[in-house]
Amino acid sequence: MGNSDSKLHFRKAVIQLTTKTQPVEASEDVFWDQFWTDVNLTAQDIFTLVPAAEIRAVREESPSNLATLCYKAVERLVLNADSGCVCERDRQAVLSCTRLLTRILPYIFEDPDWRGFFWSTVPKVGKSLDEGDDGSTRPLAESLLTAISDLLFCPDFTVESHSRTSADGPCDIQSIDSCEFIWEAGVGFAQTPPLNHTHDSNRAGGLKLFFTCFSEEMYQSPSDTHIPNPWVSFFSSGENRHALPLFTSLLNVVCAYDPVGYGIPYNHLMFSDQRGVLAELALQTLIVSLDISKAQLEYQIFPRDMFQATRGENLFVNYLSRIHREEDFHFILREIGRLLNNPLLQTYLPHSCKKITFHQELLVLLWKLCDLNKKFLFYVLKSSDVLDILVPILFYLSDCRANQSCVGLVHIGVFILLLLSGERNFGVRLNKPYSVRVPMDISVFAGTHADLLIVVFHKIITSGHQRLQPLYDCMLTIIVNVSPYLKSLSMVAANKLLHLLEVFSSPWFLFCSPVNHHLVFFLLEVFNNIIQYQFDGNFNLVYGIIRKRNLFHQLANLPTDVNSIQKALQKKRSSNSTHNAVFMETNNPYNTACSEGPYKTTPVQTGTLNASLKAMPRIDKLTETSQVSEDGATLLLQQSDSTHSQSDHSSETQDTRESIFLSKTLVLSWKSKLPLQTIMRLLQVLVPQVEKICIDKGLTDESEILKFLQHGTLVGLLPVPHPILIRKYQANEGTALWFRTYMWGIIYLRYVDPPVWYDTDVKLFEIQRI
């Protein structure tokens, strides 16, 4: 049947379905076969020929017909999976059923009355469901997931047929060991199967149907998402006999994907890249399957026999957490780093090299790997390979800082760095010189990766989107965590830190919010850590502190009288927001000139769709504080830091007099706790020495002063070193919900052509047009 005839035939079948007022019996195979037998249509064709309005009309006016359509489509998939898709006609029927269900499912999920339809028992479907001793049936959802899983390892349809399986004709698909048919070499599998674009395309259709099934979660409000997703639960459980080969196939396909290939310019414009499509779908299926609540995770890590799987256990999380071979770690880290660096590639011919677009999903996978597998986290931090991850993350943060549609990307990048910064080795690795330049519009500097981190964070804070303000304390916490190990900051990075202190210590900023003083405490902790533990190499920072000594004296003498607070609050009200011209550095004569090249951040396009994000918990809810002992061990401390106590008071919700009184009370509660002793002692010792050498030698060149400070010492002159405090990320339901909404928001926005979920009534997040 020609393509045009196929479209006409299929469209007539859809019209018949939407216009029938009486139920069509499931036994009328002639009618139902019109939707998948001898139908040769692409996914785009089916989405066009089955309009959203008609799906909703059938759902409301002929619900039994819609139910029967779903049942018959699943039945066809089960029957063809059992038979092994021995002919081209069966394979085309599978593709048609897969695409049709992908089109219909979101409209079933959006209606609460249909929510449990796929989990209700139905008449027996296919021979594989006749195995129960009591003749009971299984939910339609389980039949669907089992059939698609079988089909993803079906010889000559989605995998290469081994010689022994094809010699005697088609074999029983239930007897196949799918671990022999893993899609790509890598973790747990050494053989490299031949590349087959048709198989990749067929796999892609199955994976798209998988996470369309999983997307039922998008139609639940955030308050309901603590309930495990039943689709994911079954798919990743021991009841799916393909769980291990599926997990391995998805992970290996992602890691082994090479968008550059042989490096032929513009090859991606001349040839379709079906493996790239599959890699993206595999990555999305993988991260959705790894989504798990804090309570579920705590249950899974409870010690028991590693081979004992319970129905409620997510085997994908189990497998990921148990990867332990160094060669596997090396493979995963090397390939994820290569893919993350792909958008940074510079070529002489513009746009001649393919750039991946699924870097956000890659960052989610990296987060899952580091969070769920501590051995992998320690491996990442064991060598400087972690810097191959750090640089692209900082590139994404800098590139997206002003783009409202990329706020989630900045969040995930900061969270990964927060997780890494909780380990000492990360701070140590940052001392490696930064020599490979990537296109970022930041100040030019000669220094280390630590300098790069600080310069990028400063850029985000001073010129990023307003919606990034909740990340300020996260970014400063990262700098605090690594500061005891930073051997030598550049002058540029030192000036950036001092500029942040200048901004955050201004009276109007400190008084306008009951939590703003936390930022000052973080910065003072950074300075104290460097002075106490890395004084010898940080003469640039010491010189900056001496030059900006008035900042510290002003903090020590911060006024707390009513008149001063009132003036500061009036200044705040006269400005548009806390994120305004106060961050600009044009009035700072000591600021290093910003020598950006022609590279600019990515502007947001008018009309861009954006998915809303849940609010993140505050930093004290995201982290737990540990004290580092002399032998390097960490001791968990109680969260009793008064400087980070929470307050529900808001100056915007009370009258001026009460607001000023509360501000005064709050300021008095933390001002006396400002950790200024070490810095004041440094100034007390060094300022007279610097002034004397300048007068005696008539110095006007700061290089001579830096040389003096470089050879200076404060041994025995500073207070007893304070213990190093590290704030480590801790799993919580707030971040679990944030990741869930962020992940589904990415997937929703990725598939608008054809529009899998577009214009359906999702409730997990809101879709905004920027």
Task: Explain what you see.
One of its GO terms (cellular component) is membrane. This is HID1 domain containing b. It holds the Pfam family Hid1. With 770 residues, the chain is mainly alpha-helical. Helix content is 52%, strand content 3%. The chain contains 34 helices and five strands. The protein has helices spanning 3-19, 29-32, 43-49, 52-61, 63-83, 88-109, 140-151, 163-166, 197-214, 230-235, 243-256, 267-270, 274-289, 294-300, 315-322, 326-341, 359-372, 374-382, 387-400, 407-421, 424-429, 449-463, 472-482, 491-504, 507-511, 517-533, 539-547, 549-556, 562-574, 619-622, 656-671, 677-697, 702-710, 733-750; strands at 609-611, 623-628, 634-636, 724-729, 767-769. The strands form two sheets. The protein has a three-stranded antiparallel beta sheet with strand order 3-2-4. Strand 2 (623-628) and strand 3 form a beta hairpin. Helix 16 runs parallel beside helix 19 (387-400) and helix 20 runs parallel beside helix 23 (472-482). It is elongated, with a radius of gyration of 30 Å.
Task: Describe the SSE topology.
Blueprint: H1 3-19, H2 29-32, H3 43-49, H4 52-61, H5 63-83, H6 88-109, H7 140-151, H8 163-166, H9 197-214, H10 230-235, H11 243-256, H12 267-270, H13 274-289, H14 294-300, H15 315-322, H16 326-341, H17 359-372, H18 374-382, H19 387-400, H20 407-421, H21 424-429, H22 449-463, H23 472-482, H24 491-504, H25 507-511, H26 517-533, H27 539-547, H28 549-556, H29 562-574, E1 609-611, H30 619-622, E2 623-628, E3 634-636, H31 656-671, H32 677-697, H33 702-710, E4 724-729, H34 733-750, E5 767-769
Antiparallel strand pairs: 1-5, 2-3, 2-4
